[in-house]
Write a structure and sequence with these properties.
With 312 residues, the chain is of the alpha/beta class. The structure holds ligand A2R.
């Protein structure tokens, strides 16, 4: 008998197909009244495949679920402590997305400095006829401050070293073999950096980590790059800092209330805006989908997911 799995949210069609081949899957999105459905049928399910969400109310409605497999590395919308307390293993998709997220972070650094998007808009508007584009800012040899030197942060650092950048990082704790300076003060890192690249997990512990005071430390020549989560940045404070030219620019792949982006940012030429695409390549999304499947398959075969999450 195939284990019965509840699917929460939409997943890639290829993953949904693979799941259906190996598990007895029910999609909660097909239910007109999802709450009533889980109240009546929750006890049937042994596992949960989710697009990134699972709170304790959902877990309580699924008393026999022992595994949650989530699409993505970020687990900020999953109550990990609540899952572990209930004896539920949680699997996510780390590592397989490091390269593509780091590639996009580096692309954002270049775009926000060299004005690639803005210069292209200038050309497409026909403005080149009237004169050359503005001078932009050099990237090579500049200072990058990485906030969150984890799996992705280190991959970004390897990219930046190819641009002869000076690097330093801030975590809550220093990393043993980081190969660059640890800065215990986020404000000092921001003061020092030309680019502050944010790649910490989302959730309560990092909410508004980048606030007005950090942006003021970054200063009028500094750029903010966020490929982490929208919640990490105090978005109204960022809009004010940009409006008042207290920082040079920002490049953002994530927002506080996606897919809604503050109207003020839409019209700023020194701001690069991406619709949360950092891991969004064919190759990486396929690898993430495979890991969602592997976590479930491994759990039902061995009792262990491939990529366990042990803390928020
Ligand atoms: O603080 P530490 O020593 O636990 O280092 C982690 C750091 N970090 C923080 N740094 C400063 N203040 C905090 N409150 C804080 N919380 C965590 O972020 C660690 O070096 C880094 C996260 O690295 P990993 O756990 O390896 O995550 P990964 O795979 O690099 O992904 C980062 C995030 C995901 O959670 C998604 O939200 C996003 O990137 O795509």
């Amino acid at each position: 008998m195939k284990p019965r799995i509840l699917q929460y949210g939409r997943l890639m069609p290829s993953l949904e197909k693979q799941l259906v081949e190996h598990f007895d899957v029910h999609r909660l999105i097909d239910e007109a009244d999802p709450q009533a459905y889980v109240a009546a049928h929750g006890a049937e399910f042994k596992g949960l495949a989710t697009a990134g969400f699972a709170d304790v109310a959902l877990m309580d409605a699924l008393p026999n679920v022992r595994v949650i497999s989530s699409f993505g590395v970020g687990v900020d919308r999953i109550d990990i402590a609540g899952a572990l307390k209930r004896g539920i293993q949680v699997g996510n998709t780390p590592d397989v997305l490091n390269d593509c997220v780091a590639d996009l972070a580096m692309g954002l650094v270049i775009d926000v400095s060299r004005g690639m998007g803005a210069a292209e808009r200038h050309l497409r508007r026909g403005d080149w006829i009237n004169g050359p584009y503005l001078l932009t800012r050099r990237v090579s040899g500049k200072r990058m401050g990485i906030v969150g030197l984890g799996r992705i942060g280190r991959t970004i650092a390897r990219r930046a070293s190819g641009f002869d950048m000076e690097m330093a990082y801030h975590n809550r704790r220093p990393v043993a073999d980081a190969g660059m300076r640890y800065e215990p003060s986020l404000h000092e890192l921001a003061r020092w950096a030309d680019y502050l690249v944010v790649i910490v997990p989302g959730g309560d512990s990092t909410r508004h980590l980048i606030d007005a005071s950090v942006l003021d430390a970054l200063g009028p020549d500094g750029y903010l790059v966020n490929v982490a989560r929208g919640t990490v940045v105090d978005e109204p404070a960022l809009v004010r800092a940009l409006t008042e030219k207290r920082i040079a620019g920002a490049a953002l792949d994530v927002f506080y209330n996606e897919p809604h982006v503050p109207a003020e940012l839409m019209v700023m030429e020194n701001v690069v805006l991406m619709p949360h695409i950092a891991s969004g390549t064919v190759e990486t999304r396929a690898a993430m989908a495979q890991r969602v499947f592997d976590n479930l398959q491994s759990f039902f075969a061995t009792g262990q997911v491939v990529s366990p999450v042990t803390q928020q």
